[in-house]
Structure formats: C-alpha cells, structure tokens
Amino acid sequence: MIDTAFTRLVGCRYPVQSVPIPGIATVEFVAAICNAGGLGMLPGSMAPADAVRGMLAKLRELTDAPHGVNFLIPFLEPGYAAVSAAAEHARVIEFFYGEPDPELVALAHAGGALCSWQVGSVDEARAAVGAGCDFIIQQGVEAGGHVRGTTDLYDVLGATLDAVSVPVLAAGGIATGADYAAAIAAGAAGVRVGTRFVCSRESRAHKDYKQALVAAGADDSTYTEAFSVMWPHAPHRVLQSAIDAANNCEDEIVGEWTLGGERLAIPRNAVIAPTADTTGRIEAMALYAGRSVGRVTSVDSIEQIMADLVGA
C-alpha cells in the first residue's frame, strides 16, 4: 500500500481514482479498478435509487475493495434518493459540476460514506471544505470530459493545497508514471485518471474510440462546447477530429446507443460518448480526451496501467 492521506482515509492500496463516464465505467470496469488497488467510481447520475442499489450489489460480488459513486449536480433527481441509497453502501460519494452544497455532503455522511467534490478553482475548493467534504479533487483545464477547471493543473494545485487542510487529488493530464510522480511531488495526496483508463481493455468505450485515442497526438485535444446537446453551456475536452467530423456531418442523428435496455438515437453534437454497442458515425461523436492523450499509446489491461502509474 502506498501511504498518503488519501489512501489512509479511503482504504485503497494506491492513490489513484478513476472517472465515471456513463456507459463506459461499467460495474465490471469499476471492479477491475478496485481490484487493481485504485478507487473505482460508478456513475450514479440519472439512475433511480433502486438501480444504484442494484449496481452496488453487483459490484460487491466482484470486489471487496473500497469504491465510490459520482453524481453530476445538473442531473440529480429531486429528493436525492439515489444519493442516500449510494451512501449506504459505497465508501465514497462524489459530486461534480455545481456549487458545493452542505445538504448533499450531509446526506453522504448520514449514510456512512465519505464525501468528495471535484472542483475547478481555489474558491470552489474552499467552499467544498466548508460544506464538509472529506477530500477534494482539484481539476485542471487539461482534463478530458467535462471541465470545471479554467487554468492549468499545476497553476492551481499549489494554491489549493495552501488553502485547504483535507487531502487533495490532482486531475487533468495524468496518464503515465511520470505524470503521477509529478503530481505527488507537487503535494497531491493522489491522482484522478481518465483518458488512460478509458483506453483500457476493461473499459466499455467503443473500439474505434479507443483507437482514436491511441492514434491522437499531444495537440489533438481541444477545449470546447461543441458537444453540448443534452447538456448546454458545459465546457469539455474532446479530440479535435471528433469536432471536425461532427461539423462535416449533415445528419441530425449520428447513431444509436443503449440506455436502460432501450436503443436510443444520438443527435449530432450530443454529450454521449460512444460505448461498445453504439452504432453509427463513431468518429463524429463526443470522443472525450485530456491533454495527456499523446502519452496514451496502447490499449492495456487496468492491472498493467495501474502498475505503470504507481511503479508496482
């Protein structure tokens, strides 16, 4: 076990947390992260309480390691029943993309879970600690997917570490052992890894999405609002090739994916990332990728990726 304030608090072997992309971070994917020593995170947004309980029950059959559930503030259901259900069984409840709310933190604690918040600024970090969070994830603008941060990670990480007393994880642009070591050396208690884990064998990202990540260079990731259908005014980072393909596509529907057992249409410029059973113009969908994508050069097992990260 690598000893940091984060590993002591949460109980995982390594100070590495995964990202919870809907449809890609499946129960099996999260279990693989946990069994490899990290903190695997399930996506809980838009899932009713019974569905959250079901996912966590299945997860407990696959791992006895600590795990968590993430909720996106814009997509929380009224009453927060899913948050309460998750907090009864998960070690960590995490929130993202909204002002830190003491009521939500209290709900997580009432169920017996730790609570974290992913933040994009020093002010938001202070607010999260003020709301009662046990640790925070400081996100830089390098991060793939939806981006709360507006400045480079290391420009904000030091200031956040000076401003708060809880463990701080670094997020954005972390894909290799050298990236991990740099974050720890800068004072982070752990790291959050996205793009590299999306490109794992266990990830349920579409194979063409994974190959696009492998083929991408260091400058192929773009901060944009291009894929805002279904979630407007939410900046994100994707491959530039996906923006180009969507701009050159005349079809209003670019494909289909499965949600809750139903096949649903994917509008052009939708927020949805392509999963293994997605069909259609994969290259024109939201291919989320952080600035670290140029250092993602192969599709490997989660166990191998974790070993590469922490030197295990």
Structure description:
With 312 residues, the protein is an alpha/beta fold. The protein has helices at residues 5-10, 27-35, 49-62, 81-87, 102-110, 122-130, 153-163, 177-185, 195-198, 207-215, 240-247, 302-310, and strands at residues 16-18, 40-43, 67-72, 92-96, 114-119, 135-139, 145-146, 168-171, 190-193, 221-224, 236-239, 253-259, 262-267, 279-280. The strands form 3 sheets. The protein has an 8-stranded parallel beta sheet with strand order 1-9-8-6-5-4-3-2. A 3-stranded antiparallel beta sheet has the order 7-11-10. Helix 2 crosses helix 3, helix 3 (49-62) runs parallel beside helix 4 and helix 6 (122-130) runs parallel beside helix 7.
Specify the structural class: alpha/beta
**Beta-strand content bin:** 15-25%
How helix-rich are the residues, as a percent range? 25-40%
Number of strands: 14
**What is the overall number of helices?**
12
Characterize the main sheet.
Answer: 8 strands, parallel
Radius of gyration: 18 Å
The pLDDT mean sits at: 96
What is the element string, with H for helices and E for strands?
HEHEHEHEHEHEEHEHEHHEEHEEEH
- Measure the end-to-end span: 10 Å
Spatial sequence of strands, sheet with the most strands? 1-9-8-6-5-4-3-2
Instruction: Give the overall silhouette.
Output: globular
Unreliable stretches covering 5 or more consecutive residues: none
